[in-house]
Structure formats: C-alpha cells, structure tokens
C-alpha cells in the first residue's frame, strides 16, 4: 500500500514538473541554471513528502491519546519503522483532523505558494511550495472523484456546518484554478 500510494502521488508530481519544465524550458546556459532546474525537481519531491508531517503531528501532538496514535508510538519506540508507517497509511482514514489537510489550510496556503513563486530567486523553494500543493490537490481530487462524502470528513472538518456537494465542487475548482494561476506565474 505504501508503494502504491507513493507512486500515485509521485506520478502526479512528475507530470506536473515535466509540464512546467517543458513550458519554461530554455537551454541551461550554465551549470548554475541546470542545478537550479534540478532544485525545482528536488524541492518538489521534498514538498510532496512534507505534507506527511501532519500525520506525525497528529500522532504526537494533536491526538496522542487515541488508540492509533499509541499504536504508532509503540512501533516507533520499538524501532519497527516500516510497520509504523504501514499501519499509519493503512489506517489513514481514521486521521481526519489533520493540521495541513483541510480547507482552511488550502486557502491560506495558496498565498504562501504565490509568495514563494514570486519572491524566491531559486527554484528549490518554489519546488517545495509547489510540491506540497500538488500533494494536497491530488488527495482532494482523488476523494472528490471517488468518494465526495469522505472528502467532506477531512477537508471541511473545521467548518461548523455541512458542506453541500455543489459547494464542495466549487471549492475544489476554485482551489485548482488558483493553483493553476500561480503555476502560470512560474512560467
């Protein structure tokens, strides 16, 4: 499961970075320009993984008393790293109050991505910011297409009312369009 989940996210990121690289391509006139482009890709992969930190925060800070959190903590304490990660991913649907996977974070993060794209001189920082958003959008679209009610449980848990399917679709499209516009700035 770990491999399947990681490959799906990585495929989406690689497609995104390939499109960005092709659209902004100019033959690197120096090794510095080439390594800057490599920085975009490395930053994207790091950003893709950074979103996983909210699961760690959930286990150790947000809800350390829950059964899943205690089980993960025990596996880590006994240095069964792979089992801890596999258990965390297998039971990831139990973690729905995550710090970085909610609608409020997504809305606040778009200006952060805009700031990173417009003010960072190197491509590494831009790649990190974009990688986080690609991961988040992948998760949002996956659940929007496969199980919209599940998307409500983790994306809109901070909203004090039920979000309708129509409102959910509007949110997803607006978020995607905003990310697309920020991506165009990168080109």
Automatic annotation (TrEMBL):
Ranges annotated as spanning the membrane: 7-25, 31-53, 98-117, 170-186
Keywords associated with the record: Membrane, Transmembrane, Transmembrane helix
Protein known as: Uncharacterized protein
Source organism (scientific name): Candidatus Chisholmbacteria bacterium RIFCSPLOWO2_01_FULL_49_14
Source organism phylogeny: Bacteria, Candidatus Chisholmiibacteriota
